[in-house]
Amino acid sequence: PSWSVGLCLSVLALPSLAWMATVNAHEREHGRRNKLAALHAEAHWMSEMGLMDRAARLIAESTELDTSDPTGHLILASGYAQLGRVPERDEELGLARALGFGETLEGLDSALEHGAYGLLLMSLRDPRRETEAEAHMVRALELDPDRFGYHFSLYHLRLGRHDVDGAVAALVAFRDHLPSGEPLFQVVDALRLEVLGEHRAALDALE
User: Fold this and answer.
1) CA dihedral 47, 53, 55, 56 (to 10 degrees)
2) pTM across the whole model
């Protein structure tokens, strides 16, 4: 009878529907993570420029996407440390600790943990720890290339020791991960040209 055919078709469709739901959930999660990474990257940029109010607003937005991720607080801690604003740095480190961030190497096995530890080291502003900070950023990107904001950290660390080629490579990787149409793309490309000493071209890139 026709009803039994319809029932069979419905039963056969159930695995397909479940598969589609899984795919859609994966795509939503991928989109959320991309947006989170873009917000962290822009906040990191703003903090390196000393624009801490704007960085803090971006981190507040990122926190709405993932309340358990301490990365934003560590980005702000690093920015405040660069400006010598120690009380604010310590407050942000405290907030990161409250989210479960640990300050020891024990048990570091995820991209988030390695990246967060690298940001902690950067917040110390100790040149003796910068090589270690870079190693953690590189490891984080090996484990999860979607956390592309760490490329900007690598740019900053490498430029600090006058590794122009390494700094430019990090900027290019950062730029190439930015979402389509992101206004920050032109700014990063201009910065790349400036690092290469092409100042006129850098200004042209911003027009």
Assistant:
1) 130
2) 0.70
